[in-house]
Structures are given as C-alpha cells and as structure tokens.
Amino acid sequence: MKERDALLREAQGLRASQRVPDALATLARLEALNPGFGRLHQERGHCHILLRDGPAAIEALREAVRLNPSLPASWDMLEQLYRMAGDAAQAATAAQHLAILKQLPPAVVMANSLLADGDLEPAEAVLRDYLRQDHLNVGALRLFARIRLERGDLAEAEALLLSVVERAPDYHAARFDYGMVLLQRQKPAQARREAERLLRDDPDNRDYLKQYGAACVALGDHEPVIDVYARLLDGLPPTGPEVADLRLWRANALKVTGRQAEAIADYQASLAARPDNGVAWFSLANLKTYRFSDDEVARMSVLEARNDLQDMDRVYLGFALGKALEDRGDHEASWRSYARGNAVRRGLGRWRPEVAEAHAARLKQVFTAKVFAERAGWGLEDPAPIFILGLPRSGSTLIEQILASHSQVEGTQELTEIGRYAAELCGSDADCGLPLDPEALLDLTAEGARALGERFLTETRTYRRLGRPFFVDKMPNNFWHIGLIHLILPSATILDVRREPMACGFSNLKQLFGTTNQEFTYGVDDIARYYRTYLDVMRHWNAVLPGRVLRVAYEDMVEDLEGGVRRMVDHAGLPFEPACLTFHETRRSVRTPSSEQVRQPLGRDGLTQWRNYAPWLEPLRQALGGAVTDYKD
Predict the structure, then answer these.
(1) Cβ atoms of 382 and 450 closer than 8 Å
(2) 426 part of a folded domain
(3) How far apart are CA 580 and CA 473, in angstroms?
(4) Burial level of 2, CB count in 10 A (0-12/13-18/19+)?
(5) Which of 37, 24, 104 has the alpha carbon at shortest distance from 64?
C-alpha cells in the first residue's frame, strides 16, 4: 500500500507541475503493480483532460468508476466530458450517480471508496468515527459489516447485518449480504430462508436466485437447483462466463442426483461457453467414469501450456489430464500431470503440518481416560447420529452408501456442525482450521454438553428428509473431535474407516478437493505426516474410550462385504438387511468425488491402482515410515 500511495502522490505532483507525460509514465508503473486501483485511473483521467484528449479521459474515468463507484470527482468529470461530446444520455447517467453520492454522508462515501480500493483499515477507521455520531445509520452499518467481512471477521459481519435487517426489513441489499455471510458461516438453512424472503419481493432477481441455489446446494437439496439454473439460462446466449458458470452448477446438481448423461452434456456446454474453464474439464474427470477423447486431451494440453492461464485453471487441468492419461495407461505422463497440479495447488495453500502435530499432542494431554470417567452420563442419550470419519479417500462414501441402503438409516453429507462447535468453543487456526485451545472443552458443563447435543440434532434436522430414525454424518475430519462427540452424544455410533496408507495416499494425491478443504493432500510429505498423525490420534481415542469407535478396514470390506456389513449394523444396534449388500442399486444424492463409484458394485481396483505408480510413490512410502505396516494396529 505504501508504494502504491507513494506512486499516486508522485503522479499527482508531476501533473501539478505540468509534467503530464511523466505523470502518465508513473501511472503506468503504478498500474503494473495495482491494476485494480480506481484512483490511479481517476488521476489518469485528470492527465488526459490537461492534454485535451477527451476520449482518453472518458476511457480512464469509466475504468475508475467501474473499479470504484464511490469517486465523486470521476463522475463529475464524466458528466462534463459527456456534455461536451454531445452525449446527453451518458451525461445524465453520470449526473445521477453523482447526485446519489452527494446525498450520502461524506464519511460513508469516503469509506466506500477506500473499501473499493482495498484500504480496509482506514475505511474502518472512518466508519467507526462516523458511527459514534450516527450509530443507527443502516447504510453505514451495512458498509461496516462488509469491511469486517473483508477483514475475515465473519461473526461480527453476521451480527451487524442481522441488526440492519431487523431495523430495516425491506433493505434488500443488506438482506442479500446477510444471506451471503450466512452461507460463509455454514448456516445454509438460514441463508435459504433469507433468499426465499428476497424472492417473494423480487422473484426474477438473478442474484437472489443464485443465492437460493447456493443455499440449496449447501443443504444437499440438489433437485430444485436443476430447474433454477435452467431458468437462469433461459434466453442467454450460448457463450460467456455467466453461462459457463450456470452450466457447471447445473451439471454438478445433475451429477449428484445420478443423472450422469445430462451432467456430461452440461459440463460440455460449460466448456463450449468458455473453453478454458478448467473446473469444467476437471469436473468431467472427477466423474471417474468419463473417458476423454483424443481431441479433448489435445485441447487440455494446449490450454495447460498457456502462459496467461489462471493458477486454479492450471490446477484443474493438471488433475484432469492426470486422470485422462491414467485411463490410457500412460502412468508416467499421468504422474507428471498430477504432480504439476499438486505443486501449483500446494503453493496456493497455507497448510502447516506442524500445527496438526502440535494439536494432536495437546489433544492427547487434555482428553484423558479420567476426564471421560468424570463426565460419564453427560450429553444427550440419542443413538440417531452415525459418524463416519477417518481420512478422505478412505472409503467413507462407500460405507455411507451401504448404511444408507438400510431402511432405518438416511445418508446426508459431510456435515460441518461438529467442526463449527469445536471452533466456537476453542477458536480455530486461521491456516489449518484446527481448534486452537482444546482445553476449552473441559469448561463444558453437563447442561452445556446436553444442550450442544440437542443443538446438533436440531441443526442437522434440515438435512434429514426421509424421516428415518438414524442418519449419517460422514465428515472425515471429525476424527479430531471424537472427544467432543462423545461428550455431547454418548450414544452416537462412530465408525473409523481406514484404508491402506499407500492406496489412501495415492488416492489423495490424485484428487483435487473443493475450496480450502483437505489442504494437506497436495504434497507427499504433508500426506504422510497427516496419515501418521491420524493414526496417533486414533490410537489415543481407542485407549481412553475403549470400544467406543468401530474400525472399518476398506480392504476387509472388499474381501468380505457381508461380514463387514454385519459388524457395522450390529455396532449401530441395527438389524442386518440384505439391501446393504446391493448398495449400488440405492438411488440417492451423493456429493463426494466417489459419487459414481458407489453406484457400481464393489471391486478390487481400489486396492491395487497405486501400484501402477509405484516408481514415483517411493518417497511416499519412505515418508510414511512404520505406518505402512502398522496402520492396522
């Protein structure tokens, strides 16, 4: 920021000294560093006005207000320039924008402008001063919430926006912001209610429809969004970024609901709308059953070689090409593609393995057998939840599909409630998402533990649509929170799904996860350290809570499906049902990368695929150390 502001001041000084070409040269240097800085384009407009170059000034000022609509000087200059050019309509539009800004408190305009240029701290300072004088101004409060959101304080942003919509129920822009924060806070049921309220007043608003669709997806309710996205696509041209996104989102919903042929058609339509849409290429690969044509492989290779490709598009293409080449048996080229994708993705992440290891050590110190003995009888005695946990790509989706084939069990999705409770009670590491202070869980009272168990059942009810007495939460990361689960839900079933470490490690290395999930999976050493940490944590839980967790080995399920099923349902207190053995015939929505695989009979491929990559996986074997052989201990 200091360099940016220094360059802007230098350009302003040069313009004031009538050295306009030098000022423009300084602005060009500034643009190379900060192309999205609105005030640099405003200053460029000033320079072109001095040069009497009206079209260039208009172009610069239009870019200034596109990036930062709260620049009164830019709108003022645009109005005058348009009038001089004889463009009355554009002049009137600029005048209207200027009039709106003049009606607002100057502090709010200034804070809005600072926010648009990324100056969060001074924008917050300006607003704090203003709100001391006018603490009920809902526009200022909404802006303050946006600043807090940009600074990463989701909780305060949510509280501020709630106060705004309570004071001004018809302030639709604030209610829309509130819905978006609720989504980010992993409160999709509330977010959907806000979107539904907005749509009652404006049923065709595209932003409201998209927010409603996002909330439905977060709730695992994919059927409605298929029609919502089709409605949004109606009348649009076949190409363009919005069409590419809508086709992608609709394809995802079709995939989850088992309509694979239609999903493929929409993924391909997304690529027709934007050929370099890396996520659509990856989504085809992530079906696991799609086979790319020679032409598609060639197109992906050309795209990946482009120098101007966005980082995430490069990541998506690396993983998609890796899968395409794996399917062709070209394992060396496939490995190189996976490695390129992993390297870029790891560089974008913030995972620190030492944080996980330190948390494991503290967890073991805090949760002793004595702690649990002293809290015997705490929590809510309800056997409804079945937690499936472990590592990603361990077979958890398979286990969920088997159990969801039982007449008394409903599969939901990877629920985030338990992790959210842990974060509320203990804080959360900004990089890794793990609890900062596990000791805080010892402050729970018996009443608090029971209340949290009741809260879990209440908040997860929205995911349960079949009315079955048992339901599955298959969030793998919950292995960190077994102590919390036991305290609040002592009768819940907990299954630890475990897969041989080389197979599990390879499966993670070739899988790209969404957003910031599972960031430990993009490097051999990170995966190996996490696997060892996971084993360490599970050994601790098994020692202090003997018999509480049933270990389910993926390899054992492949060798003896019926025996494995009988052990699981018996552990959950359920009768055996033959439908669990024909799980692939069960029709339900499945969100995870294994969605198409669990719609097929169980095979042995998952046990041996990694051996095709054995020459390149030797570093993984070395990094795993003793875990390669003692993972069943």
Answers:
(1) no
(2) yes
(3) 18
(4) exposed
(5) 37
Do 437 and 427 touch, CB atoms closer than 8 A?
Answer: yes
Structure tokens at 389: 């946990």
Please report, for the domain that includes residue 501, its CATH number.
3.40.50.300
Tokens of 55: 């079209």
Each residue of 458-510: pLDDT tens digit? 999 989 989 899 999 999 999 999 999 999 999 999 999 999 999 999 999 99
E strand or H helix that includes residue 553: strand 549-553
Domain of residue 384, residue span:
353-630
Q: State which of 162, 182, 202 marks the end of a domain.
A: 182
- Section 113-123 average pLDDT: 92
561/555 Cα distance (integer angstroms): 10
Q: Is residue 514 part of a domain?
A: yes
Helix (H) or strand (E) holding 411: strand 409-413
Does 19 fall in a domain? yes
Please give the single-letter amino acid code of residue 282: F
**CATH number of the domain that residue 110 is part of:** 1.25.40.10
Q: Are 441 and 426 in contact (CB under 8 A)?
A: yes
Evaluate whether 143 touches 112 at the Cβ level (below 8 Å).
yes
Asked whether the beta carbons of 470 and 580 are under 8 A apart, the reply is no
425-436 in b/e burial notation, b at 16+ Cβ within 10 A? bbebbeebbbbb
Neighbours of 491 (CB within 10 A): 14
How many domains would you assign to the chain?
2
Chain Cα centroid distance, residue 307:
26
Inter-residue long-range contacts of 97-101, CB under 8 Å, 24+ positions, other chains counted: 97/65, 97/69, 98/72, 101/70, 101/72, 101/75
Q: What is the pLDDT of residues 232-246, one digit of tens each?
A: 999 999 999 999 999
Q: What is the pTM of this model?
A: 0.82
Token code pair at residue 188: 């999709």
Backbone angles phi, psi at 413, to 5 degrees: -170, -170
413 in any annotated domain: yes
Question: Which of 182, 199, 216 is at the close of a domain?
Answer: 182
Tell me the three-class secondary structure of 525-573, residue by residue. Answer: HHHHHHHHHHHHHHHHHHHHCCCCEEEEEHHHHHHCHHHHHHHHHHHCC
